[in-house]
Amino acid sequence: MYFADWDALKAHCPVSGGTWDKEILYEYLVYCCNIKFSEHLDCFFDHYRKDEALAGLLFDVLLDDYYDGSDSQMGAAHQIARMDREVLRKYKARLLEAQKNEVLWKRPFFREDSDLEWL
Containing H/E element for 19? Predict the structure, then answer.
């Protein structure tokens, strides 16, 4: 789908009543890579930093070969890195799996100064 501005994208919210729509979430993750939308989407996802269901879906997108090469994986890695650490501890195995990826942008914590001792 194409969205010209934040208001158009916002009208297709990926969560309703605590239930996430993976197809719409995919669109949000793709648009995370668009500078025009990235700040708005970071603010949107800030409200769900402790949402375990969202964390699971983000890892599903990031680790699924079906999405290989899609901007959605870059968006998922970015949002995973911003999730609450307590939530991420519950996904330790999946996070460590992602961190081993040879593709740098598929690692949620890819900077050299990224310290995962908290995990």
Answer: strand 19-20
b/e map 8-22, b = 16+ CB within 10 Å: ebeeeebbeeeebee
The residue whose two tokens read 């994208």 is 9
This prediction's pTM: 0.91
Q: Give me the half-sphere count of Cα atoms (radius 13 Å) on the Cβ side of residue 85.
A: 6
* 92: Cα separation from own chain's centroid: 16
H or E element: which one contains 90? none
DSSP string, 59-77: HHHHH-GGGTT-HHHHHHH
pLDDT digits (tens, 9 = 90+) for 16-55: 999 999 999 999 999 999 999 999 999 999 999 999 999 9
